Amino acid sequence: MRQTTAMKPEATLNQFQRRCARGYKMGRGRACETERETDRSLQPKRWPSAVCGAPHPPTQWTALAGLARHATTRGFTLPELLVTIAILGILLALAAPSLREILATSELRSLSIELTSTLEQARSEAIKRGGRVTVCPSANGTSCLTNVGDWRSGWIVFTDDTRTGTTASLDTGETVLRRFQGASSNIVTTGNLPYISFASDGTSRQLNGGFLAGTLRLCTTVPSIRDDERARLYTLNAMGRITVTKPSVSAACN
């Protein structure tokens, strides 16, 4: 005679949970809930939230499956990368002219500030030292250029105790007070001042002692810049005063 062994409620519950989980995967989850509701032996005091019969197990499984799917999709595909590079190239091409204008305007402004500061220092040093101080264009920082109005390569400020001839020159024993070199090729200079020399009273003088006056122009060669930002005009009067203005391009750079 075959003896039948009664299964414990815990074993019955475990079997039901496994069967019900398979039922949810196959779309028969509602049958599991009906069976649990009719069979009290399958109703524990506290039904676990992560097993079959929880309020919305399919929703939980769907969320977990979505997370797993997103975790495997990382980085960019080759077409996406190529499209991104193409868009960046177009944006850079559109921004290049504006960037060039900004750089050219900034360069002209910086050069103008440097020249203004240099002339103010030269005049101040002449008054303080009680002697002649000269500013002349220079390409190497040790000698003066003789080209009238060509200040774009730079300049030097020096004590000019031994003045000879009509051309400014740095002689032996004279001290260089300041140097500036490295103006860009985008900057051109014109004018009628081969040098600027200050006497001990602060007036501007020629090397032979006569009063010195004239103009000096700084211009940028970038044509797309606004007219009132393309040039700086320096006007030197006989009293040694420098006036800086923004002239029209036709008057300053031609």
From TrEMBL:
Record's superkingdom? Bacteria
User: What's the protein's topology in the membrane?
Assistant: Single-pass membrane protein
Which InterPro entries does the record cross-reference, listed alphabetically? N_methyl_site, Pilin-like, T2SS_GspH
A GO cellular component entry from the record: plasma membrane
Name one process (GO BP) from the record.
Answer: protein secretion by the type II secretion system
Give compartment(s): Cell inner membrane
Indicate the segments forming the General secretion pathway GspH domain, all copies.
114-240
Q: Which keywords are on file for this protein?
A: Cell inner membrane, Cell membrane, Membrane, Methylation, Transmembrane, Transmembrane helix
- TM spans, by residue? 81-99
What Pfam family is a match for this entry? GspH
Q: Which family, according to the similarity comment?
A: Belongs to the GSP H family.
Entry-linked NCBIfam families:
IV_pilin_GFxxxE
Name of protein: Type II secretion system protein H
UniProt source species: Tibeticola sediminis
Its taxonomic placement starts with: Bacteria, Pseudomonadati, Pseudomonadota, Betaproteobacteria, Burkholderiales
